[in-house]
Amino acid sequence: MRADILRTYKIVHTWAGIVSGLALFIAFYAGALTVFKEPIARWVTPPAAAPLATAMERAPELIQAVLAAHPAAANDLLLHLQTNEQNPARVSWTERAGKNGAGGGGGGHGAATTERRFRAGLNDDGSLRVEPVAPSALPDFLDTLHRVVGLPDDNDGNRAVMGVIACLYSLALVSGVIVLLPSLVKDFFALRFGKNLKRMWLDVHNVLGIMSLPFHIVMALTAVVFAFHDGIFEVQDRLVHGGRLESYWRGGTAPAAPARALADLMAPAQLLASVANIAPAFEPRTLQFGQLRGPRPSVRVWGFDPQDIARSSRGGFVSLDPYTGKVQSADLLPGRQPAAAATLTSFFALHFATFGGAAVRWIYFALGLVGAFLFYSGNLLWVESRRKTARGAAHAPAQKRSARLLAALTVGVCTGCIGGISFTMVMGRWLSGHVQDLPAWHVGAYYLVFFSAVGWAFARGAARAGPELFHAAALFTALIPLTSLCAVLVPATRLWASSSGAALGVDVVALLGALVLMLFGQAAARRARTAPTDSVWHAASAQNPVLAGR
Amino acid sequence: MPRIDAARPRQDWWAKSSAGLLLGFSLGIASGCLLLEVLHGSIAIDAQLAMWAVVPVWMTVFCTCYLFRTGRRAWLALGGLNLLAYGALFVARLPPPLQG
Q: Using CB atoms, which residue from B8, B29, B41 is nearest to A239?
């Protein structure tokens, strides 16, 4: 390959990487955690005050009671086939203020939210018991951090920012491979630990990047799609769909059915039986009823087939007419997907790890963390390759301000993100039931830690802040299992002890994570003492403070 | 190994990047629409596949646009590809001739 092309792509790789690296670190760290969104939700959610589980045999009775008392539930009613401590009720629904008229239960619409969720069960005497659901905002907040690279809100503007980052990420991937190609065979299996730090970081960066390249290609392309799909659809709608795209999503021009009485709804067991008929290996999880009073009533049966891929963490679905059981669409039903639909589903499955069960989720978790480390190592490499070496033993030159800035920023952002997420998790558990607006506390707690870490790194310089911030992140992460331990040992804290294996898994992983972070902290402390004085990682005054000098 | 300056490709960052981003996007859109012409399944699925097809083409062009020697060449070559793609799309979408 020509040397000038290599040189060009080296520049491209450096700058695409440096601009997107830290945003991608946050996206990958938070993304790795969202693979286990459900266990995290179970870890942070207090158990339901009273059991709401109603036997499946009484589900028809329960659904009718809910629809009679809460008409708005007819637009989005979920029947859960499996219940657990985080999702204890047989049915739940969402009411959207302003859309469904004055219908629905309870007054007091003073809350700022426009969406309210409820769950319900039947008392022994057949009466309905309804309680509002306040699901923890934590899993969705982690998801937001993941989707919009650390920004607080998933809106159009922030998604555009994410889209730009995703394009740079694609560019960094391809340019990185191009740059590595000429020496791939020589470098691939080489990990040269030794005196030459730049060589070592380069080897680590290369081996991680090449080994997980397929994963990163998938993530880069899907991320660009998730950022820009609205715009692309709009362009194509005008170009070739003649403005009919909206009607395609609604299932084309299916004739409106005559209005039917809610009492004529098919029993869930019957609906499930007709699904089992067409897809025996399909394992349904949730029934989602929609528009039960509208012209196009529908029920989506969500679930998984262990042998097939699924579109989302809810699974794939088949939609039926809830009054007749007639299949409306089975394109996305696991086990029955035609080739085109399976291709489409594969894009989602490859991003969300909704195939291959728990094993694949663990692999994605690991690949996500490795990805985060890849971007971290890329930044370290940038700093290392711009190092001005000391000539002779006289006195070490101060490093360029850009190198000191990026070193501090890298340490601050990475430890701030890790520590902030751990801290907001722990805080959710301690403050649950004690504060009014827990979702806002989650956001505040995360950004407090995040910006404190960044500020600390700038104030102290990368060398001194590194060990301190890694140890702080380790401490916050260790608080996760310590909180659970506290719940068991000290009932006076009014924390709850979780009995589920999923929540225990969160504790174990957090404990391991804390240990790894502690090792990072110790390595950073050792480096601050023993690194050459011309390194930004040496605690000498020449490399501090961050902002002085050139 | 050292080349004389005249033979050196120019970096032309803005010209090459804009060619890759803009013409890559329009080429992606055309590719997606062309894909739609050969798919004959459920339209709701096919329309989504046509959307997904845009991004791989777009990103491939964007990532390889620095292989062109100059920005001018990038604009000419990718512009030509766009003309071909939209020409093909136009022909593919012509109403079928009346059958006797």
A: B29
Contact A44, A425 (CB under 8 A): yes
Instruction: State the best of B51, B86, B90 to mutate against chain A, taking most chain A CBs within 10 Å.
Output: B51
Amino acid at the residue A488: V
Per the CB < 8 A criterion, the answer to whether B47 and B36 are in contact is yes
Q: Which of A15, A20, A22 is nearest to A414 (CA)?
A: A22
pLDDT beneath 70, residues of chain A: 1, 49-51, 98-113, 188-189, 195, 251-257, 390-396, 540-550
B80 in contact with A at a CB cutoff of 8 Å?
no
Under an 8 A CB cutoff, do B29 and A236 touch? yes
pLDDT tens sequence across A487-505: 888 877 778 777 788 889 9
Low-confidence ranges of chain B (pLDDT < 70): 1-10, 99-100
Structure tokens at B50: 């046509």
Per CB-CB distance under 8 Å, the chain B contacts of A233 are: 47, 51
The per-residue pLDDT of chain A, averaged, comes to: 87
Do the interacting molecules here have an ipTM over 0.85?
yes
Q: DSSP letter at A239?
A: I
Give me the residue spans of the domains in chain A: 3-44+140-152+357-388+397-543, 56-134
Q: Could you give the angle at the alpha carbon of B19 between the alpha carbons of B13 and B22, nearest 5°?
A: 125
Q: Evaluate the omega torsion of the peptide bond into residue A545 and state whether it is cis, within 30 degrees of 0.
A: yes
Contacts of B99 (CB under 8 A, 6+ apart): none
| Whether A12 contacts chain B with CB within 8 A | yes
CB distance A408 to A463 below 8 Å:
no
Q: Tell me whether residues A224 and B59 touch, CB distance under 8 A.
A: yes
pLDDT tens sequence across A265-287: 999 999 999 999 999 999 999 99
Contact A434, A396 (CB under 8 A): no
